[in-house]
Write a structure and sequence with these properties.
The complex is a heterodimer of chains A (148) and B (79). Chain A has one domain (5-144). Helices cover 72% and strands 7% of the residues of chain A. Chain A contains five helices and three strands; from the N terminus they run H-H-H-H-E-E-E-H. In chain A, strands 1-2-3 form a three-stranded antiparallel sheet. In chain A, helix 1 runs antiparallel to helix 3 and helix 4 crosses helix 5. The termini of chain B are far apart. Chain B is elongated. In chain B, 62% of the residues lie in helices and 0% in strands. Chain B has helices at residues 3-7, 9-21, 36-44, 52-67, 72-77. Classes of the chains: A mainly alpha (148), B mainly alpha (79). The A-B interface holds A 16-17, 20, 24, 27-28, 31, 44, 47-48, 52, 82, 85-86, 89, 93, 98, 108-109, 112-114, 118, 122, 125-126, 128-129, 131-132, 135-136 and B 54, 57-58, 60-61, 64, 68, 70-71, 73-79.
Chain lengths: 148, 79
């Protein structure tokens, strides 16, 4: 199957975020409407809905393009993605008033405070999570779709 | 194809073009050995076991989520 490999790579990449998105939406809606958390859900959902799936798809296309030359493992490729996503997400969240830079730490969604000391461990956490996700989920999807 | 077609120069030209574009199948195109046993062996092969490092990483991630549950919305934001 050699037709449209980049399209298949994109579809394999967006699979997981698209699958998880309704769950995230449910959690945020429950938090906003049922628990009455004062979170601006419309602004919060822009990044997970509009940007994360596309980034996953494009990142998998980049993997397909670069794998033939670099032969790097897909887990490592996915682990680098948070380094790109973290600043983009934070920038967008700041502009949409979802994230504030407080005196002692970051305040997410106007309720969730994260001390500055935990930002770097949080980034490492995200890289580890993305390593596993890309190695076991996106990698398997790539095999199923005959991408890599 | 009837007898008249063979006399047709257009038909002869078409035949020639077809022969040029479709290479003949020869004995050299056959594989040197039977590939089916290797295919069966590959289908029966068990998937590679998950390395201990990945299990440890997963345990660490679950532990971190348990210790810092307030980070879950931030994680969901980035998924």
């Amino acid at each position: 199957m050699n037709t449209h490999p980049y399209l298949r790579a994109y579809l394999a990449g967006i699979f997981l975020p698209t699958l998880v998105l309704p769950i995230i939406l449910t959690v945020f809606i429950v938090a906003r409407i049922v628990i009455q958390v004062p979170t601006p859900i419309e602004q919060v959902m822009i990044f997970p809905m509009a940007i994360v799936p596309s980034l996953f798809g494009l990142w998998n296309m980049l993997y397909l393009e670069s794998h033939t030359r670099m032969h790097h493992p897909i887990g490592l490729h996915g682990a680098v993605l948070p380094l790109l996503m973290a600043p983009i997400g934070a920038l967008l969240a700041t502009h949409l008033n979802v994230l504030q830079f407080g005196s002692s730490g970051l305040v997410w969604f106007q309720v969730c405070s994260v001390p500055y000391a935990l930002v770097l461990p949080g980034l490492l956490f995200a890289m580890a999570a993305y390593y596993l996700v890309w190695k076991y989920i996106v990698g398997n999807l790539n095999q199923v779709l005959g991408v890599a | 194809m009837n007898v008249h077609d063979e006399d047709n120069p257009e038909m002869e030209r078409m035949k020639k073009l077809l022969r040029q574009s479709v290479p003949p199948l020869g004995a050299g195109d056959e594989p040197e050995r039977d590939l089916w046993p290797a295919m069966l062996h590959r289908l029966d092969r068990k998937p590679a076991a998950t390395p201990w490092f990945d299990w440890a990483l997963l345990a660490g991630l679950v532990g971190a989520v348990v210790v810092f549950p307030s980070a879950i919305p931030v994680l969901l934001y980035y998924l």
